[in-house]
Write a structure and sequence with these properties.
By secondary structure, the chain is of the alpha/beta class. The chain folds into 2 domains: about 5-80 and about 245-270, Nucleotidyltransferase, domain 5 (2-Layer Sandwich), CATH 3.30.420.40; about 95-240, 2-Layer Sandwich (Nucleotidyltransferase, domain 5), CATH 3.30.420. Helices cover about 40% and strands about 20% of the residues. The strands form 2 sheets. The protein has a 5-stranded mixed beta sheet with strand order 3-2-1-4-5. Strand 7 and strand 8 form a beta hairpin. Helix 2 packs across helix 8 and helix 6 crosses helix 7 (about 220-230). The chain is globular, with a radius of gyration of 19 Å. The mean pLDDT is about 90.
Length: about 270
């Protein structure tokens, strides 16, 4: 059976997706990454296999991606998360030409070709103020958990500016707003808009073209997609449903596993 599995060992979460020969998702799994990368990547893969109802021997190709891809010792090959995310976004939304990926520790913007190759990209990995970690830290400082960010955002009546270009300075602004009685929801809205402004700047630097597809854990919050749409002048954006926004790189890695199988088959045919 031509079943593949993609494992994305990210800085915050590790995800795995199992695909059948028709590129249909059979199973998936996600766990916090932690510091034991080999152990967690193996565990996540095994959980995805169980969810799919298949065994390790049924898998034709395992592809690892993400910052910890080299620690996935069971892999057949590894690919960059930029390439994997482009493939995953293309499978979900074939018209995708620009991908914005906002993760826990990095933000990436890519312009991709019709064939899902990466044509241009820019990264923001130097400061937490440009990542999902900043939103989570802001929420925790105000006494809210990550899961409460979404509901909190729905109560915002306005937003306050969070202009700091550094996470440390931005945190100081959050403290000042709290000290004068600014509602937490409005502070969080300001943090979202600050993050969005950085995201759109990255997209402009890669000369973003429609369709735009947004992925990454932070896209669990509907407000983020709405903020990006507003910054883009009302342009439509694609967002995978629910938690699927976090699985796009793992999905793309599994797609590239199928591509490898196709190339091997072509080589065998040519050799006959």
């Amino acid at each position: 059976m031509n079943i593949t599995i993609g494992v994305d060992v990210g800085s915050t979460y590790t995800k795995a997706v199992v695909l059948d020969a028709n590129k249909k998702i059979l199973g998936r799994s996600m766990n916090p990454t932690g510091f034991r990368l080999t152990q967690i990547s193996t565990q996540t893969m095994e959980e995805a296999l169980k969810d799919a109802g298949v065994e390790r021997k049924d898998i034709a190709c395992i592809v690892a991606t993400g910052i910890g891809r080299h620690q996935a010792t069971f892999k057949d090959l590894h690919v960059t998360d930029l390439s994997a995310t482009a493939r995953g976004a293309n499978l979900l939304f074939p018209g995708t030409r620009t991908v914005l990926d906002i993760g826990g520790q990095t933000m990436k913007a890519s312009r991709i070709t019709e064939a899902a190759g990466v044509d241009s990209f820019r990264l923001n990995d130097k400061c937490a103020a440009g990542t999902g970690a900043f939103l989570e830290k802001t929420a925790r400082y105000m006494g809210y958990s990550t899961t409460e960010i979404g509901p909190l955002m729905t109560t915002s009546k306005a937003s306050v500016p969070i202009s700091g270009v550094c996470a440390v300075f931005a945190e100081s602004e959050v403290i000042n707003h709290l000290s004068i009685g600014t509602p937490p929801a409005d502070i969080m809205q300001g943090a979202i808009e600050s993050l969005t402004a950085r995201a759109v700047q990255l997209m402009k630097r890669v000369k973003a073209q429609p369709e735009h597809t947004l992925v990454g854990g932070i896209l669990r919050f509907d407000t983020m997609a709405e903020a990006v749409r507003k910054e883009l002048g009302g342009a439509e954006v694609n967002v995978p449903e629910g938690e699927m926004a976090q699985y796009v790189a793992a999905l793309g890695a599994a797609v590239l596993g199928h591509r490898r199988l196709e190339k091997l088959a072509e080589a065998e045919t040519a050799a006959v």
